[in-house]
Design a protein that fits this description.
GO terms for molecular function: DNA binding. It contains twelve helices and twelve strands. By secondary structure, the protein is α+β, with helices and mostly antiparallel strands. It has a nine-stranded mixed β-sheet, with helices on both faces.
């Protein structure tokens, strides 16, 4: 818990033990920590350098803990100052970067990354740097990073970054693919499936994209695309594939299930009543459905349409002809 202020597990354990007993000699503390005497003494010396422990002047050979409120408070204050300086340096660098990129040269809009290690590092950085959304097209076998190795995805999703992913059907046959998709769905990521995906692609915050390069060599390579018309084209490609793909669900056995590609009769009734101006509660009462059932059906309709608001759903309903269909027999 104290790693954030520079204490490793051994130093933290030694400090906690010293706080618990108030004062102890090296041998006693070593027994409590199940460490060797030399390792315990080195840990105490490390605590001494950070002001967390001191040799007892009243009882030679014994060590005492510094009061946590004072000693840890000082370390926290120092850490805050260091973070503030780092944030200031990052802000200044970002300002310099924006100034230099205000009129970017053509060759600055695209980076060529070569080698499995470099491609993997850039792929992970792209996700860790995302603030709002990561969109991805996933095909076939991985180029540089497998699903279990993609720790950045879990970290970014944990920070609240939204993920929209379209996977090619063939991906489901890869080892550990279903396990990875189950975890992604469990984190709240939106996953769709298509028979075929045109290319691997990752777009972060619509400001940066990464796409593999077709190469005759065995060495993986990729293009990293910055804000430009090319980036807009790649983002548009993702949205096009996303709209045509079907939402993916996994049943209790871990098998993939596709959501039907259109609304059923009850969905159409719900939709028509909502477009007529009824509230969710009124629709539920009119159709003799539960309120939560109506809301679940609306959410599913939004997923089918690939939209995030009910206003967009109404527009897509007219575009797709949903509101003009009759209820199936």
């Amino acid at each position: 818990m104290l790693t954030a202020i520079g204490l490793d597990d051994r130093h933290e354990a030694a400090y906690r033990a010293l706080v618990a007993v108030g004062a102890a000699d090296v041998a006693d503390l070593a027994r409590r920590l199940t460490l060797g005497v030399q390792d315990t003494e080195r840990a105490l010396q490390g605590l001494e350098r950070q002001g967390l422990a001191a040799r007892s002047s009243a009882r030679p050979g014994r060590w005492v803990a510094a009061p946590p409120a004072v000693a840890l408070g000082a370390l926290l204050t120092r850490q805050r100052h260091e973070l503030e300086r780092a944030e200031l340096a990052a802000a200044l660098l970002a300002r310099e970067y924006r100034a230099a990129a205000a009129e970017p040269a053509v060759h600055d809009l695209v980076e060529v990354v070569t080698g499995a290690s470099a491609v993997a590092q850039r792929f992970l950085q792209l996700q860790l740097g995302a603030a709002e959304e990561v969109c991805a097209l996933v095909t076939g076998a991985p180029v540089a990073v497998t699903a279990p190795e993609n720790e950045a995805e879990e970290q970014a999703a944990g920070r609240g970054v939204r993920y929209r992913v379209v996977v090619e059907r063939a991906v489901l046959d890869l080892p550990q693919a279903l396990g990875g998709l189950t975890e992604a769905l469990g984190r709240g990521e939106r996953v769709r499936m298509a028979d075929r995906v045109p290319t691997k692609l990752v777009v972060a915050d619509r400001s940066l994209a990464m796409v593999p390069l077709t190469s005759h060599s065995a060495e993986p390579a990729a293009l990293v695309v910055h804000a430009s018309g090319l980036l807009e084209l790649l983002a548009g490609l993702f949205e096009s594939v996303w709209r045509e793909a079907l939402p993916l669900r996994l049943n209790t056995d871990g098998a993939a299930e596709e959501v039907p590609d259109g609304p059923d009769g009850t969905d159409l009734e719900v939709l028509s009543l909502l477009l007529a101006g009824l509230t969710d509660a009124s629709v539920a009462k009119h159709l003799d459905l539960g309120l939560r059932t109506v809301q679940r059906r609306v959410k599913r309709l939004m997923e089918l349409a690939g939209v995030t608001t009910r206003l967009q759903l109404g527009w897509h309903a007219y575009e797709r002809g949903w509101v003009t269909r009759g209820r199936p027999d």
